[in-house]
Amino acid sequence: MNNLEQDYTQPLGLDVGTSRVVVARAKDKKQEYDSQLNAFLTLPYSKLAESLLQRENVFHEVQGADIVVAGNDAEKFAEVFHVETRRPMAQGVLNPEEPYSLAVVRRIITRLVGRAAAEGQKVFFSVPAQGDSLSGAIRYHEASIRQILAELGYEATPIEEGLAVVYGEMAASNYSGVGISCGSGLCNICLAVLSVPVISFSVPKAGDFIDAQAAQVTGERANRLRISKEKAFQLNGFTSDRVHNALTVYYQEVISNLIGSLRAHIASAQKLPKLEQSVPLVLSGGTAMPKGFLDHFIRILQSEEFPLRLSEVRVSGDPLHSTARGALMAAQC
Fold it and tell me: Between the CA of residue 176 and those of 126, 298, 302, what are the distances in Å?
């Protein structure tokens, strides 16, 4: 799909994640996905560099004295130059410390969704749930993404990530259960009953926390650790590999913190609906993908009594696309 026009007129689902931006479309009773890494790096501007990037079809934009390389191409260039990619988002919202943050997110979203095929075409886009000190940042972030999509001709509606997981994973339970999106910037959690969110919140320890802490104690680049974690890491105990051990330590901390926060929010809820049946808990997102994550999650969950009857605990069959899929299903309703 190019970044100017599209001929797809049906609703879209858009996951605007800290690590990746994913668009979902329904075609022939199936979902199709396209994604870009939500990252960038800058190169000094020169006519030669710009012409070479154009010739190689590298996703970039000239910004004053800089060439901003964004999306999947940013990761390739980071490996070539042995530098960290920069992130236009942090903890689930636009990064206030990056002057290019809004421009990069606009470019990535435009590349993925194109201009609306018809004025008012529907798109549901993900936003984080409320968390510690995030309320003002979420309002600005949500308004900014909505404006980007409105400028492209879309009728844009936000949906919290955890609720999107419920939509994408829990049709069999009448959209009742606990949806958890374990992303890079945040873990987003939603308990919904018949698609209505009852408890919704976010916790700040997630994938980026693991990468940053492991990088600090091993001396490795956080970006290199993220790639290693996504491709080969298994949460299977300690080994002789110091990087593996560091990732294991901070994965355990993230899981313990997530379950502790979930337990506390449900236990303290003032008017929790009476559930006649047990409900599923589904984990999604890139941070939940390593082998062993689910086993470790269940072991900690079962170490104490949980204040909600669960019918199953599982990881989504397609964790990287779960939020986008749920946003698409919400847009189709």
Answer: 19, 20, 21
What is the torsional sign of CA 83, 225, 208, 103? positive
**C-beta contacts of 87-91 below 8 A and 24+ residues apart:** 87/18, 87/38, 87/39, 88/38, 88/39, 88/40, 89/16, 89/17, 89/18, 89/38, 89/185, 90/18, 90/185, 90/208, 91/18, 91/128, 91/131, 91/134, 91/137, 91/185, 91/186, 91/204, 91/208
Three-state secondary-structure class, residue 16? strand
Helix (H) / strand (E) containing 182: strand 177-182
- How far from 180 is each of 183, 192, 280, CA to CA, in Å? 9, 11, 11
Please count the other Cβ atoms lying within 10 Å of the Cβ belonging to residue 52: 11
Angle between helix 322-332 and 161-169 (nearest 10):
80
| Closest listed residue to residue 310, CA positions, set 322, 318, 323, 301 | 301
* pTM across the whole model: 0.94
* Amino acid found at 107: R
Q: Are 250 and 243 in contact (CB under 8 A)?
A: no
Architecture of the 166-315 domain: 2-Layer Sandwich (3.30)
| pLDDT of res. 5 | 58
**247 φ, ψ to 5°?**
-60, -40
DSSP designation for 86: B
Closest C-alpha among 99, 73, 102, 94 to residue 85: 73
DSSP-assigned letters across all residues of 230-282: HHT-B-S---S-HHHHHHHHHHHHHHHHHHHHHHHHHHT-SSPPPPSS-EEEE
Both tokens of residue 253? 């901390």
pLDDT digits (tens, 9 = 90+) for 133-154: 677 899 999 999 999 999 999 9
Q: How many helices (H) and strands (E) does the chain have?
A: 10, 15
More confident residue, 163 or 271: 163
Return mean pLDDT, the chain: 93
